[in-house]
C-alpha cells in the first residue's frame, strides 16, 4: 500500500467533512461524516433482491450493480447531508478486503473525486471500519477487545491503543456469517438466511444439542465447518428414519453452539489482556441471540460493551469514514496510485 505522510493534518483548522465510499461486497454506500463522529448522511443501496435468486452474492453482478448505483448514491448522500462537493475535505474509500471487482468501482470513484476536488485520499480497511463503527456511538476505551463477526470474517482483535490492531484469533474455515447462510440453506431458508435462523432459534421450544468446536485449550481461533456438518447429519438422520427434521430445534442448537464459542473466547480474551471494553462488530452483530448473550457475559465480567445499531453493523460508508478519521487526524493520506486489495492485512493497515 502506497501512502504519503503529511506533517500536519488539516483537522487542525477546525471542523472537517469526510466523504466515504464502501463497495466491498453487495452494498453500495456513500456517507458524509463531520469530524469523524457526526453522521450527516449514510446512504446504503442493497443488492439482496438481485442476488437472492442465486442463493448468494455473484461477484460479476455485484460489480455491475455498483457501477450503476455509485453516482446516484453519491448525489443522494450529498443532498441528505446538505453539503456540496466543494465542502468535502477528504475522500475515504474501502481499499480491502473484499471482492476485487466491487472494490475497484469504489476505489476508482474515490480517486476521481479526490483528484477533481484536490483533496486527500484515504484508503481504508473494511474490518477497521466495522470496529470503529463503535466510535460513532460512544468513546472507545483502550485496551479493548473487538469481536468481529460477519459474512466473510470472524476474528478477535486486540486494540492496545487507538488504531493499533492485533489479531489474536480468527476462523480456520468458514466465517460465522457464511456458516449461518449455509445452515440456512439446509433449513430451506432463502438467502440471506442468517436472520431467519436467528428468529427461528429464538422461537424454538426445544434444542438439538450440537458439538462446540473449542480447538486447542489456549486457542482463540474458530472453526465452524464441523458444526455445519453436524447440522446436515442431523437432517439426514431424520430423513433416513422417515421423519421430518425439527428445523427449529436444529436452528436453536446451531445458534447456541456458535454463541457459546464466540462469546466464550471473546470474554476469555478480555480477561487475559485486561480489556477495559468489549466491541461487537460486523453484520452478524445484529444477531439478537448473540447480542443478548454477550451483554450478559460482559455484565458478569464487569467489562463495558459497545454494540452499534443494526444499520452500522452491516456494510456502510459511515463506518469507513470513522476508520479513515484515524489517518486523517495524523495526516496519513494515500497516493493516487492506490490499488484495490482483496486481501488486505488489518495489522499492517494500523496507524
TrEMBL record:
Pfam families: TsaD (PF00814)
Gene Ontology CC terms: cytoplasm
Keywords, in A-Z order: Acyltransferase, Cytoplasm, Iron, Metal-binding, Transferase, tRNA processing
Family assignment from sequence similarity: Belongs to the KAE1 / TsaD family.
Cofactor note: Binds 1 Fe(2+) ion per subunit.
Function, as annotated: Required for the formation of a threonylcarbamoyl group on adenosine at position 37 (t(6)A37) in tRNAs that read codons beginning with adenine. Is involved in the transfer of the threonylcarbamoyl moiety of threonylcarbamoyl-AMP (TC-AMP) to the N6 group of A37, together with TsaE and TsaB. TsaD likely plays a direct catalytic role in this reaction.
Name of protein: tRNA N6-adenosine threonylcarbamoyltransferase
UniProt key word Transferase: yes
Gene: tsaD
